[in-house]
Fold:
Amino acid sequence: MNLQKNSQVIPASLDAEENWVLLKEGRIEGLEGVYRLIFNDLLRFGMSLVPEKDFIKDCIQDLFLDLWKYHKNLMSTDNVKLYLFKALSNRINKEKKKIKIPTKDAEWKELENFYFVHSMEAELIKQQQTDSMVKKLAIGIEKLPFRQREIIQYLFFENLTYEQCSLNLGINLRSVYTLAWKAINNLKKHVTLILMFLSISIR
Amino acid sequence: MDKSDYTVEDFVLDKEFQMWVLMPTNQSRLFWDNYLAQNPGKLAVIELAREMLLNMARFEHQILENDADELWEIIHQKTHDIVPEKQESTRIFLNSKAAIQQTKKSDLGGNVSLGLGNLFRIAAILVFSLSLALLAYRYSNPDQQELMASEVPEWVEYKVPKGIKSSLSLSDGSKITLNSGSTVRYIKNFEKDKREMFLQGEALFEVAKDSLRPFTVVSGELKTTALGTVFNVRAFDLSAIRIALLEGKVEVKKVEDSEKVILKPGETIKMTKAHPGLVKEKFNVDEVLAWTQKTIYFNYADANTAFQTIENWYGVNIQIHNKPKENLRVTGKYKDQTLKNVLEGLSYSMHFDFTIRGDQITINFR
Structure:
């Protein structure tokens, strides 16, 4: 038996769900545990909805203060990340009307400062992809209406199932599909312009 | 499902299509080759859908390393100003701190200003969060942690301070309710072939069935092994251990030698210094489980036992002046009562006066 000498120390690498249980019991380290595990994902997700870091950080701050304030009424969840995505998205959606978000067009010039992330096995087919296709899709996503942008994040970047999307957005499966279909439809319109251009220039 | 009138959008959203594009298997290749042979007109549509899937990308905004730390500082600061909303209690939580505070306030006289009241509240919350922070300590470096996890078993310890009760869900689905002043320790996620808990204090175990990994509680010299049952182990004083079985079947064995007994529901084992053998008795369910129902239950208890229970329950220190009569015994049930009420109740039957100053209690036997 390999008991550690100092039994006061808890070398607990609790996962988000275990920390959630602590939080529900009013333990601040549960709140911190959840925060530390999920902050990066939340910030990234939030900024994919509204690309304003300070605004998203404010939303995350308020979200965690509310978690603390209402920890006794928190529901049990087997997927803390999903739960917090939902809570953050609702908050962003509510608060975004209060701030002025600079139009994307003005920001496009700065695009070189960003880098692109491919959620899927993009490396395999790198030689086949055109940088402009990637960029066009990324820009297309940022131009989508809020809920369409959200469903794209869920389906293609967070790899949620349709069922999970349905739970998180609070709409039925049929509506999830319709919403996703509209989002892809908008992206298609965005992308086909560039494809036409490409095929013309090749000729 | 008929996919012959699929549009680009349908293909992009089709799980099987996604699989074929992103993680093709022989089976999916066969299916889609066949599909294209039957629907040659779909080639252009499929090409576009494939391009979109392969190139799906989003802008990744830069996240700095100190983003998380900075914001946590602010959040942590602000939590101190928040008084959590009143709870409907799902866990057993005896609000002894509140009881003590109330006493403090009345000690100061009726004229406590609002500011001072808030000060107490904030102080109490601070003390509370600080003590909690001491209870559980996480390594700050997750990489290191994962590295460790793969090499040595990682021990998790939960320690519930006096005056607080807590429940705990384990990864296997089992539930533990911990009494005040109790500690459990176990290997995170358990080992492959067993679930072993080390207990000091008192806890109720509701064990999830897992025939491949027996659930064992080690308390002092006794080992209790179960396969899916509910039992209560009381081992505050390791020379006086009591194990009570509510459901299922457990085996109680001495760690050192081979003496063992099988308990049936309703049976209890008591082992004390004076009676080190394993002898079965019947037990009173109300008495054994009282603590999980916010109830202090004295059943013909002597003064020492009674005051120890109170100290542990409310997280207070008791000083006793003048000796109580030797044969003094007390019987009673206090459900969800404040410290003051319990002491008042006892003071009549046991004939003593008491004063409460913060967490210091003085008892004067008459």
User: Anything to note?
Assistant: Chain B touches chain A through 67 residues (CB under 8 Å). The two ends of chain B are 88 Å apart (CA to CA). Confidence is low (pLDDT under 50) at residues 86-117, 133-151 of chain B. The longest helix of chain B spans residues 114-135.
